[in-house]
Amino acid sequence: MRRQRDNRAEDLLYTLGVRYERWRREHSGEARREPRTRAILFGAGSAARTLLHSMIFDPRSRFEPVGVLDDDPGTQGERLAGIAVVGTRADLAAAVERTRAAAVIFTIGNAEGSLVREIRALAIAAGVRFLVVPEMSETLDHALGAQDIRDVRITDLFGRHRIATDSAAIAGWLSGKRVLVTGAGGEIGSELCRQIHRFEPAELIMLDHDEAALQSVQLSVDARAELHDPSVVLADVRDDERMREVFRTREPEVVFHAAALQHQPLLERHPGEAVKTNVLGTLAVLEAAEDVELFVNVSTAKAADPVSVLGYTKRIAEMLVANIESERTGTFLSVRFGNVLGERRSVLTTFGAQIADGGPITVTHPEVTRYLMTTQEAVTLVLQAAAIGDGGEALVLQLGEPVRIAEVAQTMVELAGEPIDIVYTGLRPGEKLGETFLGPHEEGSRPHHPLIAHVPVPPLNPSEVRGLGAHPDVRMLADLCGPPSLETRAA
């Protein structure tokens, strides 16, 4: 009873504060200079309360909150920051009409993309603008506020997933450690650096062969840093002597190996380059990592039952990691996940460029499906997987349900607001209609996390890959992958 009285008192104070703020703006002329957009918030959680406070009291806010919607029956009739919860998603159209709202703001930062799509459809049907707050991982460096509210992106509609992680477990093996990230300038590597940085490692060593990419990731981690800072290392994982020098002089305790070539159609034409980086480059880093406590190899779902050069070379890399596990005191494992909706090399980049050019959008097959996640989600799960994985395993990260790529294309056309044709070109060499995370003989268990399956990987002796050469036979790569087995290959 006392708690209810306290809540009512808090609501009363907020209501008075809201009324005063409106009076102040009206009499100061602020409201007349820049009218605010009347908005309904969907979601009555902690993010909504924080946003409401910012929307009401931040003079830079573009929004005037006029109601909150939430599907939880227990929230109905409550007030958040003085703003009433006026219904559920079923009441959206009526609430828009009653409050004269011009926008609906989706305030659940860790929601599934399917829910975002559904509320967006309701908002569009009601004739109002649909806006969102960023994913939780997008606001790690600042408190959520009204300035973070933005237009919906395709990644919000298809990439968002509800993820729970154990930050304490992750911090336990990152904080105070010397951490090396190879491929630091890439999509996954750069996000790894940003997320690792917040766990306060003793040293974050960012390695890449691309100097421009290195500068970009360094500035994203620390805007005041300079390229002569020792945190950045210009080196190529193909250079085994250079790798040994880096490990000898920097002595990393934790390694995330994200350096790889990943453009599947291009690698089909240049398999030798895929071998040099994905196989021999991984071997060079592994052999240099003699005294590390933890080694995490970033793999791909295409390594499960592989049918492409990319899949073959990443599967071989997983097997090399499993082999060295038995020779070292540290833990060596791989993390396997699906398609990342990042800024580079993703289907979104291709579709975006095609839309900007007036179309058409090219999709390989009307029924092709992929599992999609954002870069932030993929890296968050990589860090969690590394905290719970055992040596020699591949940890498989699987989020949500597979999405038809044709549906992604159609939605991007809708967001662009222009008539763009979609053309189907047929599956490319090495491309699957659907995506698998486990090979035909793999069985994944989930003992620690519902989104992370553990799969044993058969070891492969390095002697079997050293002679692959610059022009390997693709059939040889396929044979090296072999049927999954836990039996150690003969040296």
Automatic annotation (TrEMBL):
Highest taxon, organism lineage: Bacteria
Endpoints of the signal sequence: none
Domain Polysaccharide biosynthesis protein CapD-like: 179-453
Pfam families reported in the protein's UniProt record: CoA_binding_3 (PF13727), Polysacc_synt_2 (PF02719)
PANTHER family assigned to the protein according to its UniProt record, in alphabetical order: POLYSACCHARIDE BIOSYNTHESIS PROTEIN EPSC-RELATED (PTHR43318:SF1), UDP-N-ACETYLGLUCOSAMINE 4,6-DEHYDRATASE (PTHR43318)
Family, as annotated: Belongs to the polysaccharide synthase family.
Protein name (database record): Polysaccharide biosynthesis protein
Lineage: Bacteria, Bacillati, Actinomycetota, Actinomycetes, Micromonosporales
